[in-house]
Model the fold of this input.
Amino acid sequence: MKVHDTALAGVKRIELEVYHDERGSFLESYHAQRYAAVVGTHRFVQDNCSYSGRGVLRGLHYQVKHPQGKLLRVSQGEIFDVVVDLRRDSSTFGRWEGMVLAADGHTQLWIPPGFAHGLYVLSDSAVVEYKCTDIYRPDDEACLRWNDPELAIAWPEGAKVLSSKDRNGASLTQLHEEGRLP
Ligand SMILES: Cc1cn([C@H]2C[C@H](O)[C@@H](COP(=O)(O)OP(=O)(O)O[C@H]3O[C@@H](C)C(=O)[C@@H](O)[C@H]3O)O2)c(=O)[nH]c1=O
Done:
């Protein structure tokens, strides 16, 4: 596998090795020893999988007191994935990065704890699978507004299908003022 840094410190793009033969293909999506160099001492304690139709936008989510690192991969379809650096001591605090991830691109994303995360589905449907370094704690979850003008995220054009939680996300300034950053 090849590991690439991104514009946000600690966020890494991983190109997976795919083995093709007459039956199809094979890839390793996680290997504790090899990923130690990518995720450091973090340990994964929960695996998630979401299925979404075209135009679904999930996010931007994070946990405040128990931030989750996420190792994410698209196993079907194509998404525009977004991370926002919410680490107050980071030189890239408040900056976002977006990238297209597709199942046939065999790319993984490592998002360290302390980022808000969201995704927008570009294909008819998409399956997104990710490992988390902490368990889901709904009481600790916060939702950063996907279209906060202060962030000015350049989401792809198209209709957006949102949950009511995500329609009512808070701005970065509001979350900051309320002490609800990681
Ligand atoms: C995230 C999550 C949700 N759920 C439940 C709660 C709810 O009934 C249903 C759907 O929850 P949500 O609407 O929060 O699902 P979703 O919008 O897919 O939430 C996810 O969004 C992406 C962008 C992330 O980065 C994830 O960390 C997570 O926040 O699933 C769990 O049981 N465990 C979990 O870990």
Q: What stands out?
A: The chain is about 10% helix and 40% strand. The pocket of dtdp-4-keto-L-rhamnose is lined by residues 48, 50, 58-59, 61, 117-119, 136, 163 (CB under 6 Å).
